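Reopening: structure tokens for the adenosine-5'-diphosphate complex, inputs below.
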Amino acid sequence: MNSTMMDSPLTITALLRRGARVFAGSEVITCEGEASRHARFGDVAERTQRLAAALQALGVKQDDRVGTLSWNHQEHLEAYFAVPCMGAVLHTLNLRLPPHQLAQIINHAGDRVIIVDDSLVPLLAAVKPHLRTVEHVVVVGAGDASALAASPSFDWPDIDERSTAAMCYTTGTTGDPKGVAYSHRAVYLHCFAIWGAFRIDDTERILTIVPMFHVNAWGIPYAAWMVGADLLMPSRFLQPQVLCNFIQSERPTFTGGVPTILGGVLQYVLANGSDISSLKRAVCGGSAVPASLITAYRDKLGIECIQAWGMTETSPIGTIALPPKGTPADREMDYRSTTGRSVPGVELRIIDEDGSEVPADGESVGEIEVRGPWITASYYNAEAPEKFHDGWLRTGDVGHIDAKGFVQITDRSKDVIKSGGEWISSVELETLLLGHPAVADAAVIGVPDEKWQERPLAAVVLKEGATATPDELRSFLGSKVARWWLPERWAFVDELPKTSVGKQDKKLMRALYAEGKYPVVELAAAPR
Ligand code: ADP
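Re-run output (same inputs, fresh job):
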């Protein structure tokens, strides 16, 4: 029997209409350094129509890709709505990529127009000679651009919810960057997942620290708009000092960021005493969140720091780590420090090397696979059969799951350390090391070893003025992990290489180690 329910399309246009109608008075606030710029959702929605009209006048049609090379600010949000709602595809470009990779991605996506911040024009200029498909560049700057639009109104077309709304490329640490194409339907449903998982509403003021070129800023801008939360955009002012000033003056209640940025804010506040007491909650993910960061946020700042997991391919929300009902306060960290449980809409399983599902015993390790309406089913114009398994996405993350559904990522499959036939979790060693007061940054990689095939090497950056010896750090780890996990090889370095999205570049680290670039201190093996 056919249902009689309305077949309302799940589109970004529906989200746009809702925010504009129901929350016309909510605000988008852009940091401009010393000052902030305020706009109401109603005005933003009107400017969105002008932008769509301007893009149409440039010849942008259905399915055309429109790139954005931009910081987080009001104008970027306007592109977030104008481009998909006119039926075109928003392609956010990572401004931290090297020019040759940026050119490769723009060419691969076939972007026809690029919207660029005036501050990023030099970057685009470096790339431009290599671009094959770009016909127009729209520069966003301080001037009044409203005259660009022939008309202040634009009739949003009806859009098939399965058509592509936006694209984002993976950072390509293992191969060429691959494009993920998000449908309107996926973005819409993902918004509901964010709403539920982050429990946000119009009483919040949400600071979007995650760049809008990184998995749509975790979907936060669309979700905030849908629920009428004020959006605070830091633009290019991401250094802890300016960010803290922005927080102090605009008083956000909620934010999301990667551990490095949230760690930087913590250090700054502890050293300089900024008042960021308006913040009540901070979602953190993108790489493993050290338990020490979560407890420092709670104890020193009074902020609930909540771990979540996801990837470009998963829109990105996949899991969130909140303690289950009945957890006594002193056991909460047992759950908060994990990768979390899958959010409604996402199915998750862990598959061992033989292709069977591992038991949910909190120990058996395998590759995490996920599926759901906002998980990618393929890559844009690229074959990657190895990334899929019977309709599930192979995440490349390795971990275990317990009977309550809590997942713990222990590694990425390309970074796992197998020593004497047993796994050692680099993620666990790193997050523990980050809890040592002298350690600013740490990465553990597998290096060849005659006896054990592979052993962990710990590369550590010490905090300014701090000292620690390899022996001290190993004893610090000593009581917390199995003895045979303890690294013999230690290297103290000034910095660790990072990818364009700020994650450990372990491929490069392994290459640097192989070239003898790391000053390695070797301790005697700990007795097993
Ligand atoms: P890339 O895959 O290019 O690094 P993504 O932003 O898509 O860029 O990164 C997704 C990956 O980040 C995940 O597959 C996982 O390895 C890591 N990650 C994200 N959140 C967490 C988390 N909470 N704990 C551990 N790893 C995480």
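The chain has a mean pLDDT of 95. The CA atoms of residues 48 and 78 lie 5 Å apart. Marking as resolved unless the reporter disagrees.
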